[in-house]
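Reading a protein record of the kind used here takes little practice once its layout is understood. The fold follows as a row of integers, each naming the local backbone shape at the matching residue. With these conventions in mind, the following record can be read line by line:

_____
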Amino acid sequence: MSPNPNADVIGLYLLNEGPMGTFTATLDFIDYRTATYARNIYAEKNPSQLNGLGDVGNDVQIYNGKIYAVINCSNKVVVLNAYTCEQVAEIEIQNCRYIKFQGNSGYVSAYDVPVGINKNAGKGAIYKINLSTNTITDKVTIGYQPEELIISDNYLYVANSGGYRVPNYDNTVSVVSLYGDKMKHDFQIESGINLHRLQMDKYGKIWVSSRGDYNNIPSNLYVLDKVGGVYRTVKTMDIPCSNMALKGDSLYVYSVEHSQITNKNTVTYALINVNDQKVISRQFITDGTSSTIDIPYGIAIHPITKDIYITDARNYVTSGQLHCYDITGRKRWSARTGNIPAQMVFLERK
């Protein structure tokens, strides 16, 4: 890692999930201007918050100079100043998962039920937040246990998992209209079961990952595109996907597929051209070091350099690692992180 004081991107925040029930979610920060890595910067900047960030950090985003950290099992979204990391507010949302923004509003997916497997678990919801007041202004019920979401043309798309209702997983992407003051759940798009991640490419196609059932139905990646003006599942990639990052026409995919039959993980990588929807390579790490990554757990692409960032959760109970690869897939550097390093977001100059 080397300092770059003239870069438009001045840093990276990394949210460490922390093991469930331990209240050890933490926030790390890389300062590209000084080439320094600060672990648990939230605790340093907020000494009065004795309980830290909380239990299970699930998502982190930056919008209009604020950090929004979604703390799943603590049922809250923590709002911070992106340049000082000082806490601004907390917004209570039960079993919250992911957040996206449009205008002066934030939209949070939430399981909206207590944490835990329950075949009768109710439907989840999208909560609308006024970003000026950090208050909830609307809520709409959608599918079961909703996960990642995207916003395009005043419509919100969210992947429903149904993960608490095993083996009766959900298999839909909910479509929510954002026109007017009130959200409206318009319809659902059928796809694979136990959906999780979403990306929209520059051609308007939606890529959605399925975790399968961990037994007989494998993880998969699906392509949704408009047919007669309405999104439908148009292609099954027949490739496992736990997480993905999109840059231009390149979709970087990794999978950690756990089998409850063998109790083992199978780790794979892939690089996909989203234009022609073809797999370019089954390995975007080209220097042979992918074998040193135990459990890839997070992925991000630097918006300027196109460096590839991969986190390693390792054994889930000790410090993880962050690896940076150049655009050719060769390792540039590594750093020790907090526990279960997950979501990353880049900080731009003011």
